Amino acid sequence: MRAPGYDRSQNHERPLGGPISAEPRINDRIRVPEVRLVGPNGEQVGIVPIAKALELARESDLDLVEVAPTARPPVAKLMDYGKFKYESAMKAREARKNQAHTIIKEIKLRPKIDPHDYETKKGHVVRFLKAGDKVKVTIMFRGREQSRPELGFRLLQRLADDVEDLGFVESRPKQDGRNMIMVIGPHKKKAEAKAEAKAEREASRAEEQTAG
């Protein structure tokens, strides 16, 4: 069904100084002498008078949509505008859903960390990366340790190697005052990680019910 054109019978002109609509002009709202017309499948029809373009739109039961208003002449396309708006809204919604609402977690280490503490900290990094979050790893130097930055660099490199299946070095180690910082990004997007975690929980519940 074609979107409605501008109703000349009603005085609904936008007042001066009012908000500018982000919507493109369609059908009778396109008030130029001629347009460069594009067909519904992207084919170039050519420059035609606006009356002819509107006639083609009516015959095709489509809308005439101005897609490039600043071109000379403006470019207009034949399309089902209602369907186009719906599909665009769905794509935008999906993009927002898949957008990484990535949280940056932070782990702090000492250059001479003992093996047990290292394994504990590495476990946190693994958990964060599996959840699709970035991890900021900070090496804290104290006293004479500040003269041995290579200790921090080697520790960060070791950690990066240990979790390379889950994440990658997004920001290489760099000195920041008394600290050395590295950022590890997850291979999986947040949405993917959440979907996998949900699937694992459901599979686990199914196994428990079967066992019961």
Essential attributes:
single chain, 212 residues, Ubiquitin-like (UB roll), Translation Initiation Factor IF3, 4-stranded mixed β-sheet
Walkthrough of the structure:
This protein is an alpha/beta fold and 212 residues long. Among the domains are: 27-82, Translation initiation factor 3 (IF-3), N-terminal domain (Ubiquitin-like (UB roll), Roll); 104-191, Translation Initiation Factor IF3, CATH 3.30.110. The chain is built from five helices and eight strands. The strands form two sheets. The protein has a four-stranded mixed beta sheet with strand order 2-1-4-3. A four-stranded mixed beta sheet has the order 5-6-8-7, covered by helices on one side. It is elongated. Residues 4-20 have low confidence and may be disordered.
